[in-house]
Write a structure and sequence with these properties.
binds S-adenosylmethionine, alpha/beta, single chain, 10 helices
Length: about 300
């Protein structure tokens, strides 16, 4: 397995590259899958709560899929809501993200769900406010299963399922107030593992993917801020206007090679300007605003769904 180093920094918690760590881990755990129920992936859904997750507008996305496509790419996967929703239509998927701990968690769900569930059971038994901050402070874990269990435990028990890191890349979201956080999700982890058998999981920048003609790529980047309270930061690096421009250039390049592309973003003049009418179809949809530090900022907002094929 080769590992391409991402171009920009990301929160690193491994002493070795992502690929190498997982390869070593997979070699130790010779049973590639440990599934003990016949779910066939039925009912699998995102196992992390993710800011900007697409569950709430999933039908809008499904209604705009290309009629046919070969492989599926989701290069800003987050919780990968669209992948889970349309998994029965997918032969081979490539899921990637710049968040290393998230990519490790997906890989562990795929490779070793039972070991992960065991650790989640331990976290669930010990869960308390004090325990949360003890686990949150474990920034230097090296075992991928430990990293994945910590990631899911914190995601389920932190404030609003947010993912936020400080300048050193350390997760710093305070504990949330959920009375009954669904930490273990045994059935869903097993079903997700089954579904992820058809996915290659990578840790890299969105423009490191290499889709072929007729492959389908869904880009769901951090949104261009519609106002000063918008959430755009999923790693210690911000997703700047330069990154939005780079994404638009990359998508245009993919369009030239016959790749089918769909993108989500906020409805701002800046984003509309990046996607010219002679290539891109732009639809406006209404989405609930989930992440906002101001309560009065909650409500519906316009978002853009941009495709290079007719829908
Ligand atoms: C809006 S979220 C995606 C949500 C996802 N579609 C879902 O259903 O949960 C944006 C994702 O882009 C990732 N990201 C940010 N910068 C990136 C980059 N330069 N390359 C790849 N992924 C990036 C973030 O880590 C985050 O997971």
């Amino acid at each position: 397995m080769t590992t391409k180093k991402p171009k920009s920094e990301a929160p690193l918690t491994l002493l070795m590259p992502f690929g190498e760590a997982l390869e070593r881990f997979t070699n130790v755990n010779t049973r590639v899958t440990e599934l003990d129920i016949n779910t066939n992936g039925h009912g699998a859904s995102p196992f992390v709560k993710w800011a900007g997750g697409k569950r709430s507008i999933i039908n809008e996305l499904v209604n705009r899929l290309p009629e046919i496509f070969e492989n599926y790419y989701e290069p800003c996967m987050g919780g990968a809501a669209l992948f889970f929703k349309i998994q029965s239509r997918i032969n081979q998927a490539y899921l990637s993200d710049i968040n290393l701990d998230l990519a490790i968690t997906f890989a562990v769900v795929k490779i070793s769900p039972e070991a992960l569930i065991n650790k989640l059971e331990q976290h669930s038994l010990k869960d308390s406010s004090e325990y949360y901050y003890k686990i949150r402070a474990q920034y230097e874990l090296q075992d991928p299963v430990d990293i994945a269990a910590r990631f899911i435990y914190l995601n389920k028990t932190c404030f609003n399922g947010l993912y936020r890191v400080n300048k050193k890349g350390e997760f710093n979201v305070p504990r949330g107030s959920s009375i009954n956080p669904n930490i273990i999700q045994r059935e869903n982890i097993l079903a997700s593992s089954q579904v992820l058998q058809k996915a290659t999981i990578k840790y890299h920048e969105f423009d490191a993917i290499k889709p072929l003609p007729n492959d389908f790529v869904y880009f769901d980047p951090p949104y261009h801020p519609a106002d000063s309270t918008s959430f755009t930061k999923y790693t210690k690096m911000d997703f700047s206007e330069k990154d939005q421009q780079r994404l638009s250039n990359f998508a245009t390049q993919l369009n030239k090679t016959g790749v089918k592309v769909m993108l989500s973003n906020s409805d701002t003049p800046f984003i509309r300007n990046l996607y010219s009418a002679n290539i891109w179809h732009i639809d406006t949809i209404q989405a609930p605003r989930m992440v906002n530090c101001k309560a009065n900022g909650r409500g519906a907002v316009n978002e853009l769904l941009i495709t290079n094929y007719g829908v």
